[in-house]
Amino acid sequence: MEKQLRAIRSWVRREGRLTEGQENALRNLWPTLGITASDQPINAEKLFGRKAPLILEIGFGNGLSLAAMAKAHPENDYIGAEVYLPGVGSLLHRIQAAELTNLRLFHGDATDFLQQQIPDQSLHAVYLFFPDPWPKRKHHKRRILQPSFIHLLWKKLAPDGIFHMATDWEHYARHMLKVMDADSGYCNQAGAGHFSPRPEYRPLTKFEQRGVNLGHQVKDLIFVRKSPSSDSTEK
Q1: Of 183, 46, 48, 73, which is closest to residue 127 (Cα–Cα)?
Q2: What are the start-end ranges of the H helices in the chain?
Q3: Which of 30, 42, 11, 43 is nearest to 91 (CA)?
Q4: Whether 167 contacts 131, CB under 8 Å
Q5: Could you report the per-residue pLDDT of 208-224, keeping only the tens digit for each?
Q6: What is the separation of C-alpha 27 from the centre of its chain, rounded to a whole number of angstroms?
Q7: Cβ proximity of 185 and 129 under 8 Å
Q8: What is the DSSP letter of 196?
Q9: With CB atoms counted within 10 Å of each terminal CB, which end of the chain scores lower, N or C?
Q10: Where are the domains of the chain?
Q11: Contact at 8 Å (CB) between 163 and 157?
Q12: What are 185-204's pLDDT values in tens digits?
């Protein structure tokens, strides 16, 4: 029997107040741009009205980066998963303003969404940019990047699919690198023990730029899913 995931959540509820614009976006745009939580898998071709590479971003924050990627790469379809409702409202507004047709949103826990609604081997890529580092040692168990989560992603990624992470917390970056390099289902694009340069498709946000100006070093990790034939470990 497959071990149940996520007894410990990587996030806590700390919703801020919705602005009027966010409330309007949620009321008017969610019915067409939102994905409702369900125990049934989604049909991406039906959802977007076409067949295209499907990319999931986990924890998109205010959605500025995800909206920019969707606009810059209309050949891809994107789903953003976020637990914080104000962020969902903000991104809905950005989608409307930019007239994006290749972006849909899920409000809730990304692991539940992956387990219940994402078909196996359906994702071209998964992005995890600047997740909560939970810096205190007693909270490390709350970090989303754990072996069980990595194995779940492996099932959902298509062969040669990409798992791209980024963080500006050095300790968390080292943790990510150690856990990912130890999993035989993935190959480090930069070589074992190495970080990747930031690819052009990941936007440099104002928040990230402020951190860089303060001396924070952002680490990108890009791993490729191996096919079952090249992985001796059963997933």
Answers
A1: 73
A2: 20-33, 44-48, 64-72, 85-98, 110-117, 147-156, 170-181, 206-213
A3: 30
A4: yes
A5: 888 778 877 899 999 99
A6: 24
A7: no
A8: B
A9: N
A10: 57-230
A11: yes
A12: 999 999 999 999 999 999 98
DSSP 8-state symbol, 160: E
pLDDT tens per residue across span 73-106: 999 999 999 999 999 999 999 999 999 999 999 9
Sheet strand arrangement including 123-129: 34-35, 103-107, 77-82, 54-58, 123-129, 157-167, 219-225, 186-188
> Whose structure tokens read 């999931």?
56
Q: Is 27 helix (H, G, I), strand (E, B) or coil?
A: helix
Question: Where in the sequence numbering do the catalytic residues fall?
Answer: 132
**Considering only CA atoms, which of 135, 139, 138 is closest in space to residue 174?**
135
Secondary structure of 46-90 as H, E, C letters: HHHCCCCCEEEEECCCCCHHHHHHHHHCCCCEEEEEECCHHHHHH
| Single pTM value for the model | 0.89
CA nearest neighbour of 119 among 39, 41, 34, 50: 41
Which two structure tokens, joined as six digits, stand for 98?
A: 């930019």
At 165 the three-state DSSP class reads strand
Domain range 57-230, CATH class = alpha beta
- Two tokens, residue 231: 């992985």
